Hints:
The chain is α+β, with helices and mostly antiparallel strands. The chain contains two helices and four strands; from the N terminus they run H-H-E-E-E-E. Strands 3-2-1-4 form a four-stranded antiparallel β-sheet, with no helix packed on it. A hairpin with a 2-residue loop joins strand 1 and strand 2 (56-63).
Amino acid sequence: MNYRILAYPLALIALMSFAPAGLGEPQPARQSFAEWGGDRLAWTCDFKGEDSDGFDKICAYDCAGSRKEIKIDKFDHCPASIKV
């Protein structure tokens, strides 16, 4: 009897046992670097100056070469640095 005829189906059954059962849960889309870094990276910005705006005070900061401003109450002190 030719045993190769029986060996092929047995080999296929053995290989199919290692196949995944189903698709499973879908994987989330990968984030771009800008999206990923938005909530994981923090820049420390140093205080540069302040200005008065009615009942508010505007505190200016230098964030790696770009300017960032925050508004606080006129009677509060500007923080020495902020994280963005």
